[in-house]
Fold these 3 entries.
Entry 1:
Amino acid sequence: IRLVSVHWSDPERDEYLYTPDIEHSDKRREVVSWMNEPTEDILSKSRYMVESVKGEENQIRLVSVHWSNIERYEYLYSPEIDGPTPKELRQMLSWMNEPTEDILSKSRYMVEPVPGQEDEIRLASVHWSDPERYEYLITSRHQARQDRRDIYSWKGEPTNDILSKSRYRVEFVHSSKEEETEEENWWEDEKQ
């Protein structure tokens, strides 16, 4: 799949969540949103595989198709790393190493349909949410780098602005073996 920010996209341009080759540390990559017309590189890095969390009916993990391989999945997750001001922001990153139990817990998300919008969802961190408050992934207005918006999870009470910035449209990626190399379709080998 690809995730498109509903809040920031317009009829002429979709703004994709993606995992660029920008290291946050030696074990983490940044996760951002591309603000311009997407290139083939951006479209490749915006592809995610949805992995169901075993034993949980409504929980998923997102795996970067571009950066993963059959030996190691690269999971998107919400670590205990604060974003910039305001204090309600938590970083959203991609884990580059073998996942630990802590990483697997922080990479769990609930999918919540947006009321009244047939094709829009919100993602809430299972690890950080509680019954009174969901911690939603948002595409913020912050831009630490040119042409990219930062992705965070919102730790505070969700305002109407946050609820708008947490809306995503799922774009299904259809690919065939003719269109992609065997290495890029590493997940197909696991089904056999």
Note: The chain is about 10% helix and 35% strand.
Entry 2:
Amino acid sequence: LSAFRERFSAINVSVTIGPHETLLEWLTGQQVQILVLEEQLRRRGWETLALGVERLVLVAPRGHSLLQHEHVTAGMLRTMPFVMPRSGTPFRRIIDDGLRRRGVGSADLLVNLETDSVALMVQAVRRGSGLAFIPQSRMPRGRELGLINVPGMYLQQEWFALRSRERGAPRAVQELYSFLTGTVARELLKK
């Protein structure tokens, strides 16, 4: 957004974070013009474009026993407490699908906390509430969390821009959408 602001300083952008269902209702009701979602949606009258991909990493508090292992099997995760995204969300489905492919069902896990907030997930891991899968870009700098390597488990979150196909969107909205889906934004998202 700061790169967009540099190019279009007269356009103010308001960012609101909310539950997936609420955001879709707002787009339908034209309370918002553009959504950035972690799931590709196909609905008549909506346009969806891929923005980028981000790896999810498994984190634990420093000193956790699994950090002593060079490789952790998916089966070793069954006995561990977890901090997870809320059940039914796209973020949670990515994690559940990845674990299921490695032979671990969501019923096999001890989930201590469910939240839509990645910041809260990181805090909970720091305090020892469990392990968590988080976007790699949200890995805190410093030494309070460590990465757990589960060979063969590569989870990633995709990001999509979604807008109504209706003509007549304000020019500012058109400029923002063009910027988000253009080459400058794609290069920034790769970093």
Note: Helices lie at 2-7, 20-28, 90-101, 118-126, 171-180, 183-190.
Entry 3:
Amino acid sequence: SVDCIINELHTLNSPFGENLKTLSIEYCNMGDKTFETLLLEVLPKKLVYLLELEVPMNNIQSLQQIAERIKKDDTIRCVSKSNLRRLNMSHNSFLFYGRGNCKEEAAILSLLKAFNKIHCLGHSSMTNPNPDASYPDQRALPSNVKFALATNQAGKCLFDGSDGGVDRSIPLALWPLVLEKCTGATGTPFH
């Protein structure tokens, strides 16, 4: 089961995790609690160099518990050292791009604040060569989620000094230019 895989990754004591760039766990009926363990315990400690996490077609119903844990647990601060760029949660039980669900919207914003390098929530470029056709449709995301993705892509981790390296903060006056370059003429984040 997927729980066995997550437990094995959690107890991993080999350099395997340092070389893994993409992890795909699809059609495994992964629930909220297992996803939370993967995202908040396994990723920041064992899979620090992971760039893409593919978890489509599972049973993830909500991100609210993850958001609550991020807010309450000071040890979760190490997630900002994660290199995760893409998080594909498409075709799960919850559809966070529905504009009426304020709690899920707040949860995804909390997740994007903690994992401040994630700039894509749909399919990866490897599994979907046409990012405009990704599911969930990036264009259908609420504007504040799009903005969070854009600032993450523009290098928010450099701005807030949480990239795990030396302080290379971008001055506030340069941020409009950075965001303009990031979003291009269309006003939507590049993939």
Note: Confidence is low (pLDDT under 50) at residues 124-135.
